Structure formats: C-alpha cells, structure tokens
Amino acid sequence: MDLGIAGRWALVCGASKGLGRGCAEALVSEGVNVLINARTEAPLQQTATELRAVSADWSSATGQNEPEIVAVACDITTPEGREAVWNAPGGPGRGFDIVVTNAGGPPTGNFRGFTPEDWQRAVGANMLTPIELIKAVVDGMAERGYGRVLNITSSAVKAPIDILALSNGARSGLTGFVAGLARSGIAARGVTVNNLLPGKFDTDRLNATLVAAAQKAGKSLEEIRASQAAQIPARRFGTPAEFGALCAFLCSPLAGYINGQNLLLDGGLYPGTF
C-alpha cells in the first residue's frame, strides 16, 4: 500500500536502534526524507548507511529519486542539540512534516531514593524535550496544512509500574499535554498528534532488562525470556518493524482522523477493556 507520504520530511529521534530505528526504516520505505538523531555518532552513522540502502531500493522499485537521509549526532534534550538539528546541512530546518519523539526511559527504582535532580532529568528528557520539539514545528505544519507528531512513550502510561516512578510521572505529564494540544484546533488544519505506548519489544533495552532479571533470579537469560514472553497473549515480544509499520501509517493521510490518542502496542498484555 502506498501511504502517500513520499517526499515529505521526518525527524526521528533515538533512531540509531530499537523502536526509533524501526520507525525511520518504515518511513524511508515509504519514500520519506528522514533526519535521524541519536547521541552516539558511530551507531547513528551505521544506521544512516543502512537506511540509504533502503532508500536506494525504494528508488529502484518506484523510479523516483532516493529519499534523503541526514544524520545528526547530538543530545536533543539540550537547546544546543535542537539547534544542531534545525540547522543541519541538507535538512529542512524547522519545516518537518513528521516528528517522532523518542527518549530512553529514566532509571528504575524506589521513588523514595530519587532526588529532585533525578526528577528534573526525567521530566526534561521525557516531557519537556518533546514539548520543545513540538513547539518548534507545529505552527509551521499548520500553516502548510499537514503535520504528524508521534511521541514514543510507554505502556506504563496505561498501566503504571511501581519501579518506574520517574517514567510514570514524566510520560504521564507529556500525555496530558498532548491531550490538550490535540484538541486545540490544529487537527482542523491537517495536524495530528498521538502517542505510541510500546509494551515489550525485542530491543537492546529489553534485553538489558532481561539480563538484569536473570541475574537477580539466578536463572538463565533464555528462561527469563521464555517466561516473560509466555505472559503475553501473543506469546512473543514485538519487533521494531511492527512498531515502525504502525508509525508510518499514523504519519499518513489515511490516519488523518486519528488524533489525541494513546495507542497501546503490547501483544494484548494489558488486561483492561479501556
């Protein structure tokens, strides 16, 4: 299916691996020009090289020009990092049609041990940074009559976990902001904003969590993987490609009536009806 987004520009944060990488690859596979961002230069450039191969394949299949791939290694949670993205050579400045915000989750732990500085870092990365990115692009999207903002948050927004206090608080704050923004009138001008709430996806972050759980339980990694996958009705972990496919669809005109939503992708693990 042609999603009708070829030639548009997307910013994808945290795109060197995992879910961000899945989103970037899905968008390039639809002919979208992509600026990818992550903190570490080497893996980001490796991802850029691999995405250019995807771009070339799309061009060969369609006969159209190859989508542009621009990589900017920086800390986008800082004003300097965001300026590096807006001013990147070959990028669209602030003229993105699609923005996918994505930040690694803050540390786990008992809330009694977190300092004000811990909370400030969590809120800065997982709430304030997405808001700053949105603020920089949303009016331009509205003026051009098209825009898609997707925030990769967490299933913990829907079903909070006690050891994820920092994430629960910061991401829930972003969720509340998005709910208000989505209903502010921008959808009437072609701009939608939604949140993607991933459950357990087979990424490096999940693997690190499983390794720690295996060590704590005195079991093998394989045992822990199998037991956690068995708790999911799908009986497996999700893949970044599956996540990216939904991301690309939500970025398309076909999803123009989906706005202000929190879309849970967890293989059916969440037990509730709503």
Low-confidence stretches: none
* Averaged pLDDT: 95
Strand order of the largest sheet: 3-2-1-4-5-6-7
> So how many helices?
8
Percent of residues in helices: 40-55%
Tell how many strands the DSSP assignment holds: 7
How does the overall form come out from the CA principal axes? globular
Radius of gyration: 18 Å
Alpha carbon gap, first and last residue:
30 Å
Q: How does the helix and strand content classify structurally?
A: alpha/beta
Q: What portion of the residues fall into strands of 2 or more residues? A: 5-15%
The helix-strand sequence is EHEHEHEHEHEHHHE
Main sheet properties? 7 strands, parallel
Can you put this structure into words, describing what you see?
- The protein has a seven-stranded parallel β-sheet, sandwiched between helices.
- 45% of the residues lie in helices and 14% in strands.
- Strand 1, helix 1 (18-28) and strand 2 form a beta-alpha-beta unit.
- Helix 4 (116-144) runs parallel beside helix 5 (165-182) and helix 6 (204-217) packs across helix 7 (221-230).
- The model has no long low-confidence stretch (mean pLDDT 95).
- It has helices at 18-28, 41-62, 79-86, 116-144, 165-182, 204-217, 221-230, 240-250; strands at 9-13, 33-38, 69-73, 98-102, 147-152, 191-198, 262-265.
- By secondary structure, the chain is α/β, with parallel strands linked by helices.
